Amino acid sequence: MPKRTDIKSILVIGSGPIVIGQACEFDYSGTQACKALKEEGYKVILINSNPATIMTDPDFSDRTYIEPINIEIVEKIIQKEKPDAILPTIGGQTALNIAMELDSKGLLQKYNVELIGAKVEAIEKAEKRENFKKAIESIGLRVPRSEVVNNVKDAITSIKKIGFPAIIRPSFTLGGTGGFIAYSNTELEGLLKNALDSSPISEIQIDESIIGWKEFELEVVRDSKDNVVIICSIENFDPMGIHTGDSITVAPSQTLSDKQYQLLRDYSIDIIREIGVDTGGSNIQFGVDPKNGDIVVIEMNPRVSRSSALASKATGYPIAKIAAKLAVGYTLDELPNDITIDTPASFEPTLDYVVVKIPRFTFEKFPQTKPELGTQMKSVGEVMSIGSTFKEALGKAMRSLEIDNSGFDLYEDDKDKIIKILKSNNPKKLWYLANALRAGMSIDDIYKLTKIDKWFLNNIKEIIDLEFLIKKKCKKSLDEEVMQTAKKNGFSDSVISDLLNKKEEEIRDFRIANGIVPSYKMVDTCAAEFEAHTPYLYSTYQSEDESKPTNKKKIAILGGGPNRIGQGIEFDYCCVHASFALKDDGYQTLMINCNPETVSTDYDISDKLYFEPLTAEDTISIINKEKPDGTIVHLGGQTPLKLALDLEKAGANIIGTSADSIDLAEDRERFKILMQELGILQPESGIANSSDEALKLSTIIGYPIIVRPSYVLGGRAMEVAYSENDLIKYLNEAVSVSNKRPVLIDKFLNDAKEVDVDAISDGENVVICGILEHIEEAGVHSGDSTMVLPPYSLNQNLINEIIEKSKTIALRLKVKGLMNIQYAVKENSIYIIEVNPRASRTVPFISKAIGVPIAKIASKVMAGKKLTELNFTKETVIKHFAVKESVFPFIKFPDVDTLLGPEMKSTGEVMGLDDDLAGAFAKAQIAAGNNLPIEGNAFVSIKDEDKPKIIDLCRKLIQLDFNIIATRGTHDFLTKNSINSKVVKKVKEGHPNIVDLIKDNEIDIVMNTTLTKMEVTESFSIRRTALTRQVPYFTTVAGAFAAVEAIEYLKNDSIRVKPLQEYF
Question: For the segment 1020-1047, what is each residue's pLDDT rounded down to a tens digit?
Fold first, then answer.
């Protein structure tokens, strides 16, 4: 069936900011879909609030709206663009929920616009728990025994019927938000209330527990002629009880019998037909009882999902692209397989290798939270690896994570601790399986504790047995046969060197000298039955090489590895742009990355894709094989940057800013000397190698100080100490100080204004791409702060001085490519905080704000072009405002405070664009989920030093029809200044208090600043309750002022929508 010609324009709904449960896999899916639809000649209209995505590049859509994704904004876009159809199946749960709301409000009918990809009836059948249960039972299958309820009272009654433990699953949510396992009545009522609040339709399903059962997923694609193909089966390493997004997963499934697999395959086809997903991809999850093989259906996502991205990368089958083309009328047999070209999309992929995915967690960012996994997703990213066997793939995945371990080298011999971890759902459990085996525990004993399938446990035992063999056979001298066996079983050089107490380079040199090097195989979707035309490669120590290096001019681009807090999608954006730009300039591009969620690991972004760990060992092997003319390490964040010296030593030509210049910027003493030479101010600072040194140094510098370890990234364990007591507590609790692990101490510039600058230098000329002013005062990590472009309060003299200093620094550092500088401005003096001679996380935001693809320009500069050749020689002046707002995962971590500080906590960002600053800020807040009220009750409780700053703020609130509710101290201050307010008790003063009012929906906005540790502790429940009740809250006076300006804008003006294409 040919494509539909009655449709001319299609609105694609994106997924919004990166949050836990909905990450950059939807940028990958959305980019594929937009490309596919444009390829077919449709006018593509996109809405997405996330500027860090490739899909929001204006090249991928005809009309690109970086606007908040809510019903009001989507309706405005429909009114303006008049699309014929809406595709809601590639934007995660966000897009699906918007589609349902458009239908329920009659807007699809009103504007005569059609949903394609999935009909409303199918979405409701899959997403509404009771409907799904009836549908599954109607085809003779079963779901876990369950009841659907809409209030706490009925939920408690249902739990009594079903019994403990019970699984609580809210409807229409992502990443298991609000879900939990109820083991007892303890705190049950509050958890149920939170679960109901998490569901947009206030509905939860209470399931009988099948904890300990095996979990499987099948990725299914269907077309309009009822052709159905199974793309991939995925097996969860962890048993039921852990969210599949947090589970280690393996593809294809390893422990299903052929009969069981055929059953799941048949059931999946029956389910997708019964639910009625007309076209596109769906993910179906099953539980299998290991005792008797009983099967239950867990759930179905009637859209492209997180697992779809994994299945696409695991097989090479572009699910999102195919789904988009099926949505406009094509059938599977009419679409070619891009990788083989000779086979149609109706051929089911066949894998002759094994894929392992391991999630990446950042519990260290939230030390108040117990590192325990459950039905609510907690991971912030993931890695994927490909190997000829499970053991080889597992080893590669473990070293891809970029944690302190390169394999099973997390050692523990305390048997009680080992057993405790194995009984729990601690994310380190994988490593403790190895410790249990080393401690002599049997497979049966480990299985009883973990319910992890014995097939997996036996594979890990074989790895640990090999550990002992390596130690025995290679103690005196390295053994070629043992080394070959170790590499086939996934051992890294790092782990082998650790076992033998040798240097990693010694292991590598021995391997290379004895010809023990990896070969590279193609991912071809068909187990080598047909020739692959798209070079998508993985390493293995098992068979012949298929990489076929050429003599073309080529450049290797090192990606960013797994997403984590501090290093996310923004860096992948830069890597993708580098590939596009260098391909345009005639280079063959090689992408090296291990993140299955990203656009950079799509098979058609670069000329060659190496899906490999970003370690020195794996990267050097590729460079030795391909011999690229240049290697770029500056775009993927710290991950590739820290490999630069090893790569240079191994003979790689690092292009762009030199390793010495990077060291000059990062070495505090060298950089301090350079700044003194240039006459640029720095906050007073020093390095302490002991607690005593730290206390002496803090006395010399003077409080407040900012203190941090020297060995971490993303502001990890960074704090502001206002007193000696604060510092002593920090030294005792947060870090251990030593010569190997010194502590860095800087004078904290209280009340300073922070500024970020991004620039491109070619060594001769420097262009400032953007100057971003932070709304919050100094002390909030730049990755978490709200930023405005262009600066809104700095005078022109200061701006000129910032430009001059930035250009001087770039030239003195001999920067060749991108550079980011952070300044603090206090009392008209400019202090430099730090310089990063690499891509920063603000590059995509600035690119969208000024309409210039700066990562592409920088990539061409790194490859040797001058800014004059590229016609980019002066700063871009814009007449609109762009606001970057951060998005946080606090809702997933119940015991974590929402106060911001010098340690980064955000997972993603949104962008507000408008001709008016207040409008841009309002859009950014709405896009981030802070729905600003236009009237009501404002709670104001402000620390003493901030009180004089809030007089105008509170008067403005009253003018805007707000009543002010204040704690006693703030109320007395306002009364003295003739501002009316009503007193409310603090939590410690009894009831009814401020938390009671928030819980009773009597507070519409919270403005709360604190200073002392006691104030922070006492006000924690206020911020936490505001978060769970979705009441917007502001913890800085500057943020509160911006919010009030935005409220005035919303009250007096209707939000206007405008595509990127109309700004430039």
Answer: 999 988 988 889 999 999 999 999 999 9
